[in-house]
Specification:
Length: about 450
């Protein structure tokens, strides 16, 4: 039975080319391949998370003399708060310093790694308040919605075609100072890379309207179609065009857009008909000490936060690689030489429905002549998917690869087996690990 020494010599000498051609690629039934990108809709932004950010900004104001204004300790504390969340979520952050009125101001810039560096989509909000209050609607609301959208990008593992950047501006209340500084220090070659800037300043007004900036038509339409989809009528923003940070970008030719729920202007009776509320100021606490967490309309904040995410997802043409559930057995299983088949089992639980058409089968078999080994995936119902055939000529070591199997006719949950059988004498090995990614 043991003819192994001559066989090895013959195989190496005579079948080396055949081995290269036939033995290297896995079986045709299961080609290793990259995961295809899947288009994805924007997630629902959890209102509770956005509101928690507002509660935290309120606490920062309370602990710092009641405001988060330029040059006051509450402003820098706000920057540190937002930055810590972004750093923990995998953003590349930078704090940009500028000087205004003899005082240091700060912009916070956060880049999401990846995407086309020549197509930058940016969303921003001013993070400063006026000195008379905590600035929770103006502009904790925009700051919190942009922050939570950035965190949602991280949670989704978004891989957008465009490069995503987020910004929190200082000293907006003193004349768009921070955003002007940011744009001013960008070389014109960098400005040219912006495909758009989205601005969110006051998006939770207590007596809200739903206003969309009428600047770049694509951005405007993206917001309008979001609101149309949830059955909420919008109007064009007219309460002071250029009164927020988008003007800094627009002035250098960058396409801009944004959302707004109204400031000190009074809601008309026609607008009350349309949106509900009362024929009073959209925000009676605008630039006042009563702009606290009590000065927020939750429905407006919720809808606008979801609109931010919708715009980021659709305008960056994002795709996601879903996290994928992984099941693995790392126990070693010896494969007897020229002997019976052995198996390594993983018990799959908690996966709804069938297995995917792109089930990833991670195989790690250590072996001194892998051609000896036939490798199969066995579904819970006993269906067999051949991953690798026998090959007398494939003299390479080990089977360490990920196969993609169309397992869409199999129920996902149950005991899946990796089956290995050594069909020729002398060289031996073992299953090192077996991993399934759903
Ligand atoms: N932060 C802005 C300001 O104090 C609020 C504002 C007023 C606004 N009118 C606007 C924001 C129009 C966007 C669009 O001026
Ligand atoms: Zn303001
Ligand atoms: Ca063998």
């Amino acid at each position: 039975m043991n003819l192994s020494v001559p066989r090895r010599a013959t195989a190496v000498a005579g079948l080396a080319l055949a081995g290269l051609l036939a033995g290297v690629a896995p079986a045709a039934t299961a080609q290793p391949q990259a995961a295809p990108a899947a288009a994805a809709a924007a997630p629902d932004i959890p209102l509770a998370n956005v509101k928690q950010h507002l509660t935290d900004l309120q606490s920062i104001a309370n602990a710092n003399g009641g405001n988060r204004a330029h040059g006051r300790t509450g402003y820098k504390a706000s920057v540190d708060f937002v930055k810590a969340k972004l750093d923990a979520a995998g953003f590349t952050t930078a704090v940009q310093q500028f000087t205004y009125n003899g005082t240091t101001g700060y912009n916070l810039i956060a880049d999401w790694p990846g995407g086309d560096p020549n197509q930058v989509l940016m969303a921003g909000a001013h993070l400063d308040s006026v000195s008379s209050g905590a600035g929770i609607n103006d502009n904790g609301s925009g700051s919190a919605a942009v922050l939570e959208t950035a965190l949602a990008v991280s949670r989704a593992g978004l891989q957008p075609a465009k490069h995503l950047r987020f910004g929190w501006w200082g000293a907006e209340e003193l004349g768009l100072v921070g955003s002007k500084y940011y744009v001013g220090q960008l070389p014109s070659t960098e400005r040219a890379k912006f495909s758009g800037y989205l601005n969110f300043d006051m998006i939770g007004s207590p007596n809200p309207g739903y206003f969309v900036y009428d600047d770049d038509p694509t951005i405007e339409q993206t917001f309008k179609s979001y609101f149309a989809g949830i059955g909420v009528p919008t109007e064009i923003e007219t309460e002071g065009d250029g009164r927020s940070d988008h003007a800094s970008f627009k002035n250098v030719g960058i396409p801009v857009g944004g959302l707004f729920t109204g400031a000190s202007r009074v809601k008309t009776s026609a607008q009350v008909q349309k949106w509900g509320g009362t024929a009073t100021a959209f925000d009676r606490c605008y630039h006042s000490s009563c702009d606290t967490t009590a000065n927020i309309n939750d429905t407006a904040l919720d809808r606008n936060s979801d609109a931010v995410a919708h715009a980021i997802w659709s305008l960056s043409a994002g795709t996601t690689t879903p996290p994928g559930k992984v099941f693995e057995n790392t126990a070693d299983v010896a494969i007897p030489d020229n002997g019976a088949a052995v198996t390594s089992t993983v018990d799959v639980t908690g996966v709804t429905g069938n297995a995917p058409a792109t089930l990833k089968v991670g195989v790690d078999i250590v072996h001194t002549w892998r051609g000896d080994v036939v490798v199969d995936l066995v579904a819970p119902d006993g269906s067999v998917y051949n991953l690798k055939p026998f090959s007398s000529s494939d003299s390479a070591d080990n089977v360490q690869t990920t196969y993609t199997v169309n397992a869409s006719s199999e129920v996902a949950n149950g005991a899946w087996k990796l089956r290995a059988q050594d069909k020729a004498a002398q060289d031996t090995g073992y299953i090192n690990s077996f991993k399934l990614t759903f």
